[in-house]
């Protein structure tokens, strides 16, 4: 009952804000173009957000277990992922939902500490292997292909105690874990993703400390983390490339998230500022992989600001020439997670920032417009045109490369089954994507919606729901109930069209 009355209020709010928000693009019409042949659709989840069973069958503790158990108030509603959507026991229900929607593939992650409970010993947990093998077999029996993430932020706590992503040994620890996964699961996996969203791992985990493991070291440790994440990714990619690719016939890449950064005005200074911000956000991880080394503007800014701030060397640790070659080219395609957009203005005045941080190192002002629609939390603004601009920028920056959208979706607080706002989001974002494909020649080959079921949304807990299926987190049985968006997405997949009919 509560569910339906709140959903009514929510719809009214969305309709109003859509009417007066964002006038400059109010004349946009959803495209009637069809998705090209061969384009595929999937849905995504991550282990800690859905599995629950946090200490079942010998699973080791991981940093998010520790981070939240130590201080429950770190999560808005003081919930945690101990049970979450209980997919450890209810994965067959998840697969049934996917079958209903008709997805081509499922993107999910493996929990490192379920496979190697203490992170780096040679003791592999047979129960952990068994769980994922059952899931793989269920997917196969239902004709659903797989895209598997090795690392979606859940570092075994035993490794964090040894320094985690700040310890150079993590490059070897990660390779050992990857080797075990390639060996046990390789035959079931169509696409491997080494690392998901390095920005969240390093900036949020070791910079501002808002995410596990909660290390606060802005502008210093977060760069050390970034260097190790990239080397660990590259090590796991090369191992795949040399020892597994030929035999398994699968692919392997890294997932990088990026917002779009739009210049605040037509001025050259703002255009330049926006580009600097894009390089600090997306380029920080993509430039080393796709072009080699950190973006030059990062090398220059961080070196200059570090010197002026009194550091004896740049806070951005350099890659050796050998490391630049090792990381460069470690991708099979460009994988993108995208949700929102910011405006960027050049900063006047100060020669260098007093504040030591990754944000300050970019040296620009980024903000969002009040007129833009807001999803469940303030920073989550719904700006569909930003997606199209980002896609065109990716092509202009990295060349005519294959792009796979590995996450895109929108949150609400209620979990309403009448989620017209989610349908509108998917429709408008995918429409701008199709325009970028047809008009901009951007080669997007697949789209992955986040998410198939409601799950545990990190520090927003159960306050932010992004599923196409509602999950009642108070019900021990965690039934999955179809929302309207699941039917819309199913229709897009079967008709390959965003509207009732296409050209
Ligand atoms: C929509 O409106 C904007 C601003 O008025 C204009 O620049 C743009 O060309 C219009 N687009 C279309 C498709 O009419
Ligand atoms: C820079 O300072 C740190 C301590 O703040 C020190 O450990 C390091 O050796 C110094 N590096 C150089 C190149 O002097
Ligand atoms: C897009 O990329 C895929 C994979 O590399 C390739 O097979 C396909 O021909 C490309 N499509 C276009 C339109 O360039
Ligand atoms: C969620 O489950 C609880 C416990 O079974 C129940 O009391 C509540 O009514 C359910 N809420 C909804 C919206 O179905």
UniProtKB/TrEMBL annotation:
<protein>
    <recommendedName>
        <fullName>beta-glucosidase</fullName>
        <ecNumber>3.2.1.21</ecNumber>
    </recommendedName>
</protein>
<comment type="similarity">
    <text>Belongs to the glycosyl hydrolase 1 family.</text>
</comment>
<dbReference type="GO" id="GO:0008422">
    <property type="term" value="F:beta-glucosidase activity"/>
</dbReference>
<keyword id="KW-0378">Hydrolase</keyword>
<feature type="signal peptide">
    <location>
        <begin position="1"/>
        <end position="19"/>
    </location>
</feature>
<dbReference type="Pfam" id="PF00232">
    <property type="entry name" value="Glyco_hydro_1"/>
</dbReference>
<dbReference type="InterPro" id="IPR017853">
    <property type="entry name" value="GH"/>
</dbReference>
<dbReference type="InterPro" id="IPR018120">
    <property type="entry name" value="Glyco_hydro_1_AS"/>
</dbReference>
<dbReference type="InterPro" id="IPR033132">
    <property type="entry name" value="GH_1_N_CS"/>
</dbReference>
<feature type="active site" description="Nucleophile">
    <location>
        <position position="407"/>
    </location>
</feature>
<dbReference type="InterPro" id="IPR001360">
    <property type="entry name" value="Glyco_hydro_1"/>
</dbReference>
<keyword id="KW-0325">Glycoprotein</keyword>
<dbReference type="GO" id="GO:0005975">
    <property type="term" value="P:carbohydrate metabolic process"/>
</dbReference>
<comment type="subunit">
    <text>Homodimer.</text>
</comment>
<keyword id="KW-0732">Signal</keyword>
<keyword id="KW-0326">Glycosidase</keyword>
